[in-house]
Write a structure and sequence with these properties.
Elements lengths: L1 E3 L2 E3 L6 E2 L8 E4 L1 E6 L2 E5 L1 E7 L9 E5 L6 E3 L1 H6 L10 E6 L2 E15 L8 E11 L8 E3 L1 H5 L2 E6 L4 E6 L1 H7 L18
Parallel strand pairs: 8-13, 9-12
Antiparallel strand pairs: 1-2, 3-12, 4-15, 5-6, 7-8, 7-11, 9-13, 10-11, 11-12, 14-15
Protein backbone atom coordinates (compact mmCIF):
# COMPACT_ATOMS: atom_id res chain seq x y z
CA UNK A 1 0.00 0.00 0.00
CA UNK A 2 1.10 3.54 -0.63
CA UNK A 3 -0.13 6.98 0.37
CA UNK A 4 -1.07 9.25 -2.51
CA UNK A 5 -2.74 12.67 -2.10
CA UNK A 6 -3.81 11.76 1.45
CA UNK A 7 -5.66 8.72 0.13
CA UNK A 8 -4.36 5.28 0.83
CA UNK A 9 -4.10 3.07 -2.27
CA UNK A 10 -3.23 -0.55 -2.83
CA UNK A 11 -1.02 -2.02 -5.49
CA UNK A 12 -3.08 -2.84 -8.56
CA UNK A 13 -3.42 -6.56 -9.29
CA UNK A 14 -2.26 -7.70 -12.67
CA UNK A 15 -4.41 -10.44 -14.14
CA UNK A 16 -3.64 -11.99 -17.48
CA UNK A 17 -6.12 -13.74 -19.71
CA UNK A 18 -7.82 -13.79 -23.03
CA UNK A 19 -8.19 -10.60 -25.02
CA UNK A 20 -11.86 -11.16 -25.84
CA UNK A 21 -13.12 -11.67 -22.28
CA UNK A 22 -16.22 -9.63 -21.43
CA UNK A 23 -15.85 -6.69 -19.02
CA UNK A 24 -16.45 -7.08 -15.29
CA UNK A 25 -18.63 -7.54 -13.31
CA UNK A 26 -19.05 -11.21 -14.09
CA UNK A 27 -22.31 -12.67 -12.74
CA UNK A 28 -22.63 -16.37 -12.00
CA UNK A 29 -25.97 -17.96 -11.10
CA UNK A 30 -26.10 -20.19 -8.04
CA UNK A 31 -26.23 -23.92 -8.80
CA UNK A 32 -28.51 -26.51 -7.24
CA UNK A 33 -26.98 -29.00 -4.80
CA UNK A 34 -29.06 -31.70 -3.26
CA UNK A 35 -31.70 -32.46 -2.31
CA UNK A 36 -30.76 -32.01 1.33
CA UNK A 37 -33.49 -32.80 3.87
CA UNK A 38 -36.09 -32.81 1.08
CA UNK A 39 -35.06 -29.49 -0.41
CA UNK A 40 -32.52 -28.29 -2.94
CA UNK A 41 -29.76 -26.02 -1.67
CA UNK A 42 -28.43 -23.34 -3.99
CA UNK A 43 -24.68 -22.75 -3.86
CA UNK A 44 -22.44 -19.87 -5.05
CA UNK A 45 -20.58 -21.51 -7.93
CA UNK A 46 -18.23 -20.07 -10.56
CA UNK A 47 -16.61 -21.65 -13.62
CA UNK A 48 -12.87 -22.29 -13.36
CA UNK A 49 -9.98 -24.22 -14.83
CA UNK A 50 -6.39 -24.94 -13.78
CA UNK A 51 -3.31 -24.76 -15.98
CA UNK A 52 -0.29 -26.91 -15.16
CA UNK A 53 3.35 -25.92 -15.36
CA UNK A 54 3.85 -27.71 -18.67
CA UNK A 55 0.80 -26.28 -20.43
CA UNK A 56 -1.92 -28.81 -19.63
CA UNK A 57 -5.29 -27.19 -18.90
CA UNK A 58 -8.12 -28.90 -17.08
CA UNK A 59 -11.61 -29.06 -18.45
CA UNK A 60 -13.90 -26.36 -17.11
CA UNK A 61 -14.75 -26.99 -13.44
CA UNK A 62 -17.50 -25.76 -11.17
CA UNK A 63 -15.97 -24.30 -8.01
CA UNK A 64 -17.75 -23.50 -4.76
CA UNK A 65 -17.04 -19.94 -3.56
CA UNK A 66 -16.48 -20.36 0.20
CA UNK A 67 -15.53 -17.41 2.42
CA UNK A 68 -14.97 -19.80 5.33
CA UNK A 69 -12.23 -21.70 3.52
CA UNK A 70 -8.71 -20.30 3.83
CA UNK A 71 -7.32 -21.94 0.66
CA UNK A 72 -8.10 -23.03 -2.87
CA UNK A 73 -8.73 -26.77 -2.63
CA UNK A 74 -9.27 -29.30 -5.41
CA UNK A 75 -10.06 -32.95 -5.99
CA UNK A 76 -7.16 -35.30 -6.79
CA UNK A 77 -8.35 -36.01 -10.34
CA UNK A 78 -7.90 -32.29 -11.17
CA UNK A 79 -4.18 -32.65 -10.37
CA UNK A 80 -4.03 -35.57 -12.81
CA UNK A 81 -5.65 -33.46 -15.56
CA UNK A 82 -2.95 -30.77 -15.32
CA UNK A 83 0.02 -33.11 -14.93
CA UNK A 84 0.74 -32.41 -11.26
CA UNK A 85 1.64 -35.07 -8.71
CA UNK A 86 0.98 -33.49 -5.30
CA UNK A 87 2.44 -36.41 -3.35
CA UNK A 88 5.91 -34.93 -3.91
CA UNK A 89 4.96 -31.56 -2.45
CA UNK A 90 6.84 -30.38 0.63
CA UNK A 91 3.94 -28.04 1.52
CA UNK A 92 1.58 -30.28 3.48
CA UNK A 93 -1.17 -29.26 5.88
CA UNK A 94 -3.59 -31.25 8.04
CA UNK A 95 -6.86 -29.42 7.55
CA UNK A 96 -10.30 -29.74 9.12
CA UNK A 97 -13.04 -30.22 6.54
CA UNK A 98 -16.60 -31.35 7.17
CA UNK A 99 -15.94 -32.40 10.74
CA UNK A 100 -12.92 -34.54 9.83
CA UNK A 101 -9.22 -34.04 9.15
CA UNK A 102 -7.57 -34.46 5.77
CA UNK A 103 -4.03 -34.11 4.47
CA UNK A 104 -3.67 -31.35 1.86
CA UNK A 105 -0.67 -31.09 -0.46
CA UNK A 106 -0.08 -27.76 -2.21
CA UNK A 107 1.25 -26.86 -5.67
CA UNK A 108 1.64 -23.51 -7.43
CA UNK A 109 -0.48 -23.42 -10.60
CA UNK A 110 -2.21 -20.98 -12.90
CA UNK A 111 -5.81 -20.52 -11.78
CA UNK A 112 -8.38 -19.49 -14.40
CA UNK A 113 -11.74 -17.88 -13.79
CA UNK A 114 -13.84 -18.56 -16.87
CA UNK A 115 -16.20 -15.84 -18.07
CA UNK A 116 -19.85 -16.68 -17.35
CA UNK A 117 -21.66 -17.90 -20.45
CA UNK A 118 -18.43 -17.69 -22.42
CA UNK A 119 -16.04 -20.28 -23.78
CA UNK A 120 -13.02 -21.92 -22.16
CA UNK A 121 -10.96 -19.35 -24.10
CA UNK A 122 -12.52 -16.39 -22.22
CA UNK A 123 -10.88 -16.10 -18.82
CA UNK A 124 -8.66 -14.21 -16.43
CA UNK A 125 -5.64 -16.02 -15.00
CA UNK A 126 -3.31 -15.64 -12.02
CA UNK A 127 -0.82 -17.75 -10.08
CA UNK A 128 -2.29 -19.46 -7.04
CA UNK A 129 -1.38 -22.04 -4.43
CA UNK A 130 -3.81 -24.97 -4.85
CA UNK A 131 -4.24 -27.68 -2.24
CA UNK A 132 -5.12 -31.20 -3.35
CA UNK A 133 -7.06 -33.54 -1.07
CA UNK A 134 -6.85 -37.33 -1.54
CA UNK A 135 -10.23 -38.21 -0.04
CA UNK A 136 -12.40 -35.61 -1.75
CA UNK A 137 -15.99 -35.45 -0.47
CA UNK A 138 -17.47 -32.09 -1.58
CA UNK A 139 -20.07 -32.07 -4.36
CA UNK A 140 -18.01 -29.78 -6.59
CA UNK A 141 -14.41 -30.50 -7.71
CA UNK A 142 -12.95 -27.24 -6.37
CA UNK A 143 -13.39 -24.85 -3.45
CA UNK A 144 -12.24 -21.23 -3.77
CA UNK A 145 -11.21 -19.68 -0.47
CA UNK A 146 -9.65 -16.57 1.00
CA UNK A 147 -6.01 -17.07 -0.05
CA UNK A 148 -5.79 -17.25 -3.83
CA UNK A 149 -9.34 -16.16 -4.70
CA UNK A 150 -10.92 -13.66 -2.31
CA UNK A 151 -7.63 -11.75 -2.19
CA UNK A 152 -7.68 -11.43 -5.99
CA UNK A 153 -11.22 -10.06 -6.54
CA UNK A 154 -14.13 -8.24 -4.99
CA UNK A 155 -16.70 -11.00 -4.46
CA UNK A 156 -20.36 -10.26 -3.80
CA UNK A 157 -22.85 -13.04 -3.15
CA UNK A 158 -26.62 -12.59 -2.94
CA UNK A 159 -28.78 -15.43 -1.72
CA UNK A 160 -31.75 -13.20 -2.53
CA UNK A 161 -30.76 -12.92 -6.22
CA UNK A 162 -29.01 -16.33 -6.30
CA UNK A 163 -26.03 -14.70 -8.02
CA UNK A 164 -22.32 -14.25 -7.37
CA UNK A 165 -20.68 -11.12 -8.78
CA UNK A 166 -16.93 -11.06 -9.41
CA UNK A 167 -15.19 -7.74 -9.97
CA UNK A 168 -11.61 -6.43 -9.88
CA UNK A 169 -10.38 -6.18 -6.30
CA UNK A 170 -9.93 -2.40 -6.56
CA UNK A 171 -13.73 -2.04 -6.80
CA UNK A 172 -14.08 -2.54 -3.03
CA UNK A 173 -11.60 0.24 -2.30
CA UNK A 174 -13.35 2.55 -4.77
CA UNK A 175 -16.69 1.94 -3.05
CA UNK A 176 -15.64 1.95 0.59
CA UNK A 177 -12.12 3.34 0.82
CA UNK A 178 -9.25 1.65 2.61
CA UNK A 179 -9.01 1.86 6.39
CA UNK A 180 -5.59 3.04 7.51
CA UNK A 181 -3.59 1.04 10.00
CA UNK A 182 -3.91 3.90 12.51
CA UNK A 183 -7.68 3.42 12.66
CA UNK A 184 -8.68 1.08 15.43
CA UNK A 185 -11.26 -1.49 14.35
CA UNK A 186 -14.76 -0.85 15.59
CA UNK A 187 -15.68 -2.82 18.66
CA UNK A 188 -18.74 -4.96 18.10
CA UNK A 189 -21.81 -3.95 20.04
CA UNK A 190 -22.67 -7.60 20.62
CA UNK A 191 -20.55 -10.14 22.34
CA UNK A 192 -20.13 -13.53 20.79
CA UNK A 193 -18.99 -16.68 22.44
CA UNK A 194 -15.82 -18.31 21.12
Amino acid sequence: MSRSSERLTRTILSLSGSADSPPFPWLYPYQDDGPRLDRVVRRPIVSTALAGNTGEVSDGLYALVDSGCAHILAAPWVADEVGVDPKYSQRVLDLGIGGGRVKVRFADLQMRLLAPGGTDDQYVEWEAEVGFVDQWKPTFPMILGQHGFYDQFTVTMSHFAFQTAIEPRAVFDERYGIPTSQQAPEKPTRRARP
